[in-house]
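Task: encode each sequence below as structure tokens.

Item 1
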Amino acid sequence: MKIRITNKSNNQNPSYQTSGSSGMDLRASIPASIVLPPGQRILVPTGLYLEIPQDYEAQVRSRSGLALKKGIIVLNSPGTIDADYRGEICVILFNSSKNPYEIKPSERIAQLVFAKIVKVNLENSSALDKTERSSGGFGSTGTN
């Protein structure tokens, strides 16, 4: 599948790092470093614009190494980019660590994953079929 992209950044187009990668790395399109204080969030531009086909979405997700090693996560992960959106792709980064984090120009800050969307029609019902779990909530199936 081909996705049309307009790249207004100084960075290369996103690409898969390995043949088995699910996500493409997104890079910060910023003129100078930005310090993200602990417990704060920031909107980081990428300079990228996509033409996503109908019935697809792009999902913005955290990079696992950045999350584990530095505590930097995509706040609304996965962030959804709808097929009809044509604006700049930006990433909401959150610093969950106790240390300031310096976001550098061209740094890989998130992943972009494309997914097929299934549209449904909701049907009102006064009752739902019972299941083994039924209304059991968080942790109702155990913790081990």
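Item 2
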Amino acid sequence: MIYTTEIIVNITLKEFIKKLDNADNMKHWQKDLTSFEHISGVPGTVGSKMKLNYTVNKRKIELIETITHINLPHEIYMSYETKGMHNTQKNHFYTTPEGYTKWVIENEFSPTNLFYKIMVLLMPKAFKKQSEKYLLDFKNFAENGTSIQNA
């Protein structure tokens, strides 16, 4: 399953990257994130890996994030591995004529077990809706300092 999401964040590209590139900020815009840890490579470089732990509806999910391409402030690509699913994400950042930041994400989900194959078939909109929620939560954090932790 492949889809694209995008949002305009009303801050400069420089401010945007500073907030996005700080792993400590993830707790302010990634609902259900319980912890993260750097596990290999030089943080913020191609090949570096981070373990992300989420609890979604009392279900624990562990993702391994690997940076596969980086050209900040314009783009960063990552892959995510979890039991039953592989996800690639290509993030592109543009400056709008108003001086704001346009964030475009190309997602590709590839299920590797029957459970996720069924989920992708029956609930494809749920994946896109979650991606859009992360974008909106990041926008609210970046523009207004609004953290999902205070919600």
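Check on item 2: Residues 124-144 form the longest helix (21 residues). The mean pLDDT is 95.
End of task.
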